[in-house]
Specification:
elongated; single chain; seven-stranded mixed beta sheet; 13 strands; 621 residues; alpha/beta
């Protein structure tokens, strides 16, 4: 389980993908996007796993395209028979052949579309599974650098785009491609010169696309913006109707809606005019191609090189290309969009797992040792030469102002981030030499983003140790003081919770996360403000639960409430990435330094004189 995806993270390191800039914010290392070669390789590999279905889809689609060639060929032969003065004896066989070919083409086209759709959905399902598997096993360091937004966009938006294309576009696309290829082959089979004449339309199609695509993209984007502005103006006026009426602002709001509607209308008309002009260019391509076939056919017939029937068949073949070529051209945007989304999915699906050390090191105990640890994000240094030793079972709290480097230090200790310089050792073993798959057994990280999955409460807690039985899960809930409210649920601990089921409060979600930690039973626990979401009402309860869940473990705690630091064995005060104070709560208060200033500021008290000792005042509960 990774940080930001679940509350108990299994940390590790992996080399970062190429950096990318994010508009209006710091640089991020986005997840990789597969090249066309790697994307096609992934598709071929998945198709190879379904050879029979692939072969059936290809064969049926080819047969459907082939049956579509029968009618023009038969009609061309009929024209030659009529010119030769043949009687009507063969007319019945011609009609039967045409009807049989039409029925066969319809049945095979439908069957081929169904097979292609089934193949596409099957392959997409396997790719989705691979993406999910890789995403769930991504080291937390990678997600930290990339941000969860990129991953969610791929597993949500990109999957939706490819799914829509597979169901609505791909079957027709495959059929159109086969139809174009087979019909072109039919043209050349009649006469190579007729085939070349048909190719006269190709440059016009290409020029039409090159003219349309650069102009359509910005206009479609502008149309979406204008439509959104119109919707927003209408929604704002309707939602605040009572206020608008009270202040007599009806005319102003109606005028604003009219203005936004006019803008959306004008942009839509511009888009329609552009599309109409694009359509006229496609019609011009069809005209040029058809004219070239007819003129070439006329010259060949006059030279007795081909028959009138052959030219008739060639003309019908070319006319048969209008719909599939038009579909391919019109769907070019959708195909490009689906291809881009598929490349983004393939980028994750083809990621290599983090490398494991050749000779993994095994921690001797639960001690932590940091030597000269420095970490920087791009050019901004957030940790500076931190040296620290934590004894087994010791509870250490990190405090400091926002941006002091507390979360970064916690992430480095947990193995979520790889330090820019310095070393981190767990029980004498370097973290980067323990191995991603083994580090999770020794270190668990709880972030403040506590997630409850849809499922039973028992299964939610069991995420900490999937093989645990119900008795162990109940013991973990009891250890953190959650068994009472768990048994009070409608179906007890077997109650389904999470989205769409029984809702849990923030404090209860925190209990679930801490119960997972207790069940996982790692020697080292890192809590990064894991009780922050509970608010004041549940903070005291969760603090006690956190203390129970981490009792006996080496614990590093990023404290958002100083009562957590007060209970720690040792407190580290960070400022601008460096440890500036270290000691117990009483020692640091007596020293009168930064921690004392934080404490008195937080409790609302301050010393009357710098050298006057302060009386002990417990923190507000």
């Amino acid at each position: 389980m990774n940080e930001r995806t679940d509350d108990v993270a299994r940390p590790g390191q992996q080399d970062a993908p190429p950096a990318a800039a994010t508009p209006g914010g710091p640089r991020q290392d986005l997840l990789p996007i597969a090249s066309p070669r790697r994307t096609w390789a992934l598709l071929r590999a998945e198709l190879a796993g379904h050879r029979r279905l692939t072969a059936a889809a290809v064969a049926v689609t080819l047969l459907a395209g082939t049956t579509g060639l029968v009618a023009p060929w038969v009609l061309g032969g009929l024209v030659d028979d009529v010119r030769a003065g043949a009687g009507t004896d063969s007319l019945l066989s011609v009609v039967v052949t045409l009807v049989a070919a039409a029925v066969a083409a319809g049945v095979l086209t439908g069957l081929g579309a169904a097979l292609v759709a089934r193949l596409g959905e099957t392959v997409l399902a396997r790719i989705r599974a691979r993406v999910l598997d890789r995403a769930l096993h991504l080291p937390s360091a990678v997600l930290e650098r990339a941000g969860t937004g990129d991953l969610l966009s791929r597993t949500g938006d990109d999957v939706a785009v490819v799914t829509a294309a597979v169901s609505a576009v791909v079957p027709q696309l495959v059929s159109a491609l086969f139809t174009v290829a087979l019909t072109g082959a039919g043209l050349f089979a009649l006469d190579w010169r007729l085939g070349l004449a048909g190719l006269a339309a190709a440059p016009v199609y290409v020029l039409a696309l090159r003219w349309y695509l650069p102009r359509s993209g910005p206009l479609y984007a502008e149309q979406r913006v204008a439509t959104g502005a119109r919707t927003q103006a209408m929604a704002a006026s309707l939602n605040g109707a009572s206020t608008v009426l009270a202040h007599r602002r009806e005319a102003e709001h109606v005028a604003r809606v009219d203005e936004r509607s006019a803008e959306a209308r004008d942009v839509s008309l511009t888009v329609f005019r552009l599309f109409t002009r694009f359509g006229s260019r496609l019609n011009l391509a069809e005209l040029i191609g058809l004219t070239a076939v007819l003129v070439t056919g006329f010259l060949l017939v006059r030279a007795d090189a081909v028959t009138v029937g052959a030219v008739t068949a060639a003309t019908l073949y070319f006319h048969r290309l209008f719909n599939p070529i038009g579909f391919l051209v019109m769907q070019f945007d959708d195909v490009q969009e689906a291809g881009a989304s598929l490349a983004r999915l393939a980028g994750i699906a083809t990621m290599s797992p983090p490398p494991e050390p050749e000779v993994p090191e095994t921690p001797a105990d639960a001690s932590l040792e940091l030597r000269g640890v420095t970490h920087a994000y791009d050019d901004r240094t957030v940790l500076r030469d931190v040296t620290l030793t934590v004894a087994p079972g010791e509870r250490v709290a990190l405090v400091g102002a926002s941006g002091a480097g507390k979360t970064t230090l916690a992430s480095v200790i947990a193995g979520v981030l790889k330090p820019t310089a310095g070393t981190v050792r767990l029980g004498g073993a370097r973290l980067d030499r323990i191995g991603e798959s083994r580090l999770g057994r020794h270190v668990a990280l709880l972030s403040q983003e506590l997630h409850v999955f849809h499922g039973t409460l028992l299964d939610n807690v069991r995420l900490g140790r999937p093989e645990a039985d119900d008795e162990a899960v109940l013991a973990a809930l009891d250890a953190v003081g959650a068994l009472g409210w768990a048994r009070a649920l409608p179906d007890g601990p077997a109650t389904r919770v999470g989205e769409g089921a029984h809702p849990l409060t923030a404090a209860q979600a925190g209990h679930v996360a801490l119960a997972r930690l207790a069940l996982a039973d790692p020697p080292v626990a890192v809590l990064d403000e894991a009780t922050a979401e509970a608010g004041s009402a549940g903070a005291r309860v969760l603090e006690e639960a956190a203390e129970a869940a981490t009792r006996g473990r080496t614990t590093l705690l990023v404290a958002h409430r100083l009562t957590q630091a007060e209970r720690a064995d040792r407190i580290l005060v960070l400022d601008q990435g460096a440890v500036v104070e270290s000691g117990t709560h009483d020692e640091l208060l007596a020293a009168g330094g930064r921690y004392a200033a934080l404490w008195w500021s937080w409790t609302g008290l301050r010393s009357a004189a710098p050298d006057e000792p302060q009386p002990y005042v417990p923190a507000p509960r």
